[in-house]
Every structure is written in structure tokens, then in C-alpha cells.
Specification:
224 residues; alpha+beta; elongated
């Protein structure tokens, strides 16, 4: 009986150690795979999987990631926070530094874009030359210039930011242009999710503006 009790105690301790260790190992592996997007720094990652052996199949109840100063496909992003519920990852691929989704679950992500980030997006789209963006709670003010032939014309546009009708792109809609009335595009696409490497297909759920910052909330269709 004593040996049985000792064995049970050892087993309980072993299970406790593995319950502590296995999710943390998976979190470190995921942080390592995502480090290149944060300039080589592993982001903060936590994984909850109870019991731990569910992770043998890659399944977890909750996964959270916080990242700052992120670069994805050449896009500079101030911060990203994601929460993933009832999802799954291929652990063999993760151990090799690759993120392979085996179970979509429910995925929610917020992306913070500063004035500087949005200026870079406009420059990337070549809608303006040397654009400077100022985000207010009511809209977006863009100062820059447009090259027409050999002439560089200064522009100051004020407008709104919305998601596209299919919720896959971020659109800037100039509503007022100071100075000359020029044949500018009514809508300027800033970001299309199809051009960004993401672990799951996402759609834009909400766009919020605060002074100096735009926050996108995105989800997969299982997160509606």
C-alpha cells in the first residue's frame, strides 16, 4: 500500500510538472516562430491547455499573443494583440519554426496603427507623395503632394476610414480637399488582408479612431 501511495504521489507530481512545462514549451516555440516579425524579439505568448496531453494533438483552449513594433510583409504596425480560443497547431511544424493551423477555433485580433504607420501605408499605395497623416477621433487628415506631369501639387485631404463592403480591406475616403480640385480617386485602399500573411483568413470587424491612432479589430468567420 505504501508503494502504491508513493507511486501515486510521484505520478501526481509528474503530471503537475508536465502540466506546467508542456504549454510553456509550446508557447516558447510559438514565440520563437513569431520573433522575426518583432525584429527578432520573441513576443509575449501564453497557452492554456488542460489537460496538457491535449497539446499532443496541438489542441488548446486559449492562446494569447502581444507584440509591439511589428513588421509583416513590409507593413509597420505599432502593436498587435490576439486571442485564439479552441484552436489547434501542428506541434511538429511549430518545433521547426513554422505555424501550421490544424483547428481554426475562434480567432480575434486587434491591430494598432499610428500616424506614422498610416503615412507609410499611403506612401506604399503611391496615392500621395511624402504623406503625413494625423488621426483624430472624427477622421483622417492627410497632408502631402501629388505629382501631375512635371508639377508637384500640394494637397490637404480630410476624410474617413472605413472597411470595404467585403470587410477585407481598409479604405480611405477623402471627403474634402483644400486648394485645387484634382481628379483624385474617391477611395484609396490602404490595406488588403489578402496581401498580408495571416495564420487564418480574417475579416475586419470594426475600425476605431482615437487621436493619433487607428485600431482595427479582426476575426475569423468562426469568431462572429
Amino acid at each position: 500500500m505504501n508503494r502504491l501511495l508513493q507511486g501515486l504521489v510521484v505520478l501526481a507530481v509528474l503530471v503537475g510538472v508536465l502540466q506546467w512545462f508542456v504549454p510553456r514549451w509550446a508557447a516558447r516555440a510559438l514565440a520563437g516562430a513569431m520573433a522575426p516579425y518583432e525584429g527578432g524579439r520573441p513576443p509575449a505568448v501564453t497557452i492554456t491547455a488542460v489537460p496538457f496531453w491535449e497539446l499532443a494533438s496541438g489542441h488548446f483552449q486559449d492562446l494569447a499573443v502581444r507584440m509591439h513594433s511589428v513588421t509583416v510583409n513590409g507593413l509597420d504596425i505599432a502593436a498587435i494583440q490576439l486571442h485564439w480560443f479552441d484552436g489547434g497547431l501542428n506541434l511538429a511544424a511549430l518545433a521547426k519554426g513554422r505555424v501550421v493551423v490544424t483547428r481554426p477555433g475562434r480567432f480575434m485580433m486587434t491591430v494598432e496603427l499610428t500616424n506614422h504607420n498610416l503615412s507609410s501605408l499611403l506612401l506604399r499605395e503611391k496615392a500621395f507623395t511624402d504623406p503625413t497623416v494625423t488621426v483624430t477621433s472624427g477622421g483622417i487628415d492627410v497632408k502631402g503632394s501629388l505629382t501631375l506631369g512635371n508639377e508637384v501639387v500640394p494637397l490637404n485631404a480630410v476624410g474617413a476610414i472605413t472597411e470595404s463592403p467585403n470587410h477585407e480591406a481598409l479604405i480611405y475616403h477623402p471627403e474634402r480637399i483644400d486648394g485645387l480640385r484634382l481628379p483624385l480617386l474617391t477611395n484609396v485602399q490602404l490595406l488588403n488582408l489578402d496581401t498580408v500573411t495571416l495564420p487564418l483568413p480574417l475579416y475586419i470587424q470594426h475600425v476605431a479612431l482615437t487621436p493619433g491612432q487607428l485600431v482595427l479589430t479582426m476575426a475569423n468567420h468562426g469568431g462572429q
